[in-house]
Amino acid sequence: MSGLALASAHPGVRRDERGWLVLVLTLLLSIFLLATPAFAQEPAALPDRPLANASQEARAQALFDVLRCVVCQHESIADSPAGIAGDMRRAVREQIATGATDEQVLADMVRRYGDFVLFKPPVTIGTWLLWFGPFALAAGGGLALLAMARRRRVETETLSPEEETQLNKVLQSDRFGQNPVASPPHAGRSLGPTDDAGAVGVTPPPPVSKP
Description:
By secondary structure, the protein is mainly α. 58% of the residues lie in helices and 3% in strands.
């Protein structure tokens, strides 16, 4: 009762608490939006400033044409509008301004981004696997499938010992004009004496006496 009486007696206290709560929620929401990359303002890219020395700038432009943008992948850093391409151009100019040779600049770019940063990378085991590895895998897979298909065909054409025995029986029966499944022609009969032709005859019945 005392709390209700206090709130009813001082209505401005509850309004002040609500105001502080809204203020805190607004501050938290603002901090969250500023921390989110989608709402945070991206810093402006530094402009490309050519070198004051004309010969050094010419060297830098020549190096731009042989260095690949690691984001675009199909454009050189001279033509790419990506932010990382601008960073790479500035790094090249800074090294040239400090007296680095072209070979040293390229070596530093390779150290940072790998051989892929060069449009014409040196032929090494790594680059060979990178460029020709997929073709080698595809060719090896095709040869393996072909070998498996030929092996299955040979296994299908090869007869088992039981099949070879049955086939020999069929061939022999066809040769002598007999059916290997049917009973032999003399089954169920008694063999008689051999006739003049050498064939086996049937035993004649006993003679019948006349009255």
